Amino acid sequence: xxxxxxxxxxxxxxxxxxxxxxxxxxxxxxxxxxxxxxxxxxxxxxxxxxxxxxxxxxxxxxxxxxxxxxxxxxxxxxxxxxxxxxxxxxxxxxxxxxxxxxxxxxxxxxxxxxxxxxxxxxxxxxxxxxxxxxx
Length: 135
Fold this sequence. Notes:
Number of strands: 0
Low-confidence stretches: none
Number of domains: 1
Number of helices: 6
Mean pLDDT: 78
Helix content: 55-70%
Radius of gyration: 25 Å
Oligomer: single chain
Strand content: under 5%
Structural class: mainly alpha
Order of helices and strands: HHHHHH
Shape: elongated
């Protein structure tokens, strides 16, 4: 798995599954279901992938959906601000994957005003200084 966050989330869901619902704290119990529809071929691909990863389709779907949300919010700072503002306005607590959004964000710092000057490698500069001294 190339994305460590996906693997960590799969591992956490696997641990939760093994513990069983009675042993979980209320914050770890997933009691809401969202119906997701796939074409037959998309469902078949998801089945093949879930078998290769050794994960149930529902667990894999959950992890991939959350991962897609993280990527979407990380790539769009305005949407990120709007969604989190709406989330917090409703009084919901931060979710465990919110820090991952900031980690993946590719926000660039404000550009620095100035001019670009090419600096040759130090060895080349020393060579130029030596030549000047010889003249």
